[in-house]
Amino acid sequence: MPFALGPRATSAGYRLFAFDKAGSTNAEAMSRARDGERGPAWFVTSEQTAGRGRRQRAWIAPRGNLASSVLEIIDVSPSVAATLGFAAGLSLESALQKLSIEANLRLAGSDRLKYSLKWPNDVLAGQKKLSGILLEAEAVPGDRLAVVVGIGTNVVGAPEGTPTPATSLSALGVHVGAEELFSALSDAWVEFRGIWDNGRGFSEIRKLWLERAAGLGERVAINTGTMSIEGTFDTIDETGCLIVRTAEGKRMPIAAGEVYFGAAASVGAA
Question: Where are the transmembrane segments (predicted)?
Fold first, then answer.
């Protein structure tokens, strides 16, 4: 089955660049933007050999996993563009819920899987990482911003030794292909990209994201790279920062860092 856009994505004018194998779909998308590609367009493969996650970690997608990046050329500031990552998380969670429901209908007696969104850019199944999201942006002519949103999902296999233990759809009993997942994801993106509306709809995105947030109200530790902060995961603010309420009652905004919940918070804070 070849990669194909969903019907909503096709109607919305998205184009598709599919590769049998690619180094990095994010790099491919940004290279095309530098060469004049104005999208909106998806770049997708089921085998990625040189992908990157946050903090320049390698993100390798063995054949059968989904590496996908969407290119949007928009007239917003970099800080507003950063909030598009929350719409990406919602898009993938929605696609996964749809496919899992359909898969579970084919698996008699199976419990419905629960997915959640971990700040700032992971999708979890239970307590394990299923997907990571990476945003990159560069200025392009016309005072606009080329924003590439990379979404890597473990379909048939998951890496080992990651900060958050990882899993795959196959290991969870959801036997769908990368192509099927991508079609559902491209349609869900149209919905949540529309709600986001170049940042004007972030208040609604924020509300929907918090309804699916992992660890909300729980003990949390954040390692920013220079310091560790412990407290309770209170909310995310109107800019997308995670708000931690410390033991002294102070509310601290966190713009970036590694997040650990519950018992893992003690390890993360060390």
Answer: none
Angstrom distance (rounded) from CA 171 to CA 258: 25
Is residue 134 within 8 Å of residue 24, measured between CB atoms? no
**Same-domain status, 112 and 71:** yes
Which tens digit of pLDDT belongs to each residue from 108-158? 444 567 899 999 999 999 889 999 999 999 999 989 999 999 999 999 999
The answer to whether 167 touches 158, Cβ cutoff 8 Å, is yes
Query: CA 130 to CA 167: how far, in whole Å?
Result: 5
pTM above 0.70, yes or no: yes
The residue type found at 90 is L
In whole angstroms, what is the distance from residue 203 CA to residue 211 CA?
A: 13
Q: Enter the tokens of residue 164.
A: 């958050």
Cα–chain-centroid distance for residue 50? 18
The domain of 119 spans: 7-211
Q: What is the DSSP string of 134-149?
A: EEEEEEETTTEEEEEE
Which residues make beta-bridge pairs with 236?
242
Same domain for 84 and 149? Answer: yes
Tokens of 187: 């349609």
212 is written with which tokens? 């699916």
Of residues 32, 92, 48, 43, the one with CA closest to residue 70: 43
pLDDT in tens, 10-65: 999 999 999 999 999 999 999 999 999 999 999 999 998 876 655 455 555 679 99
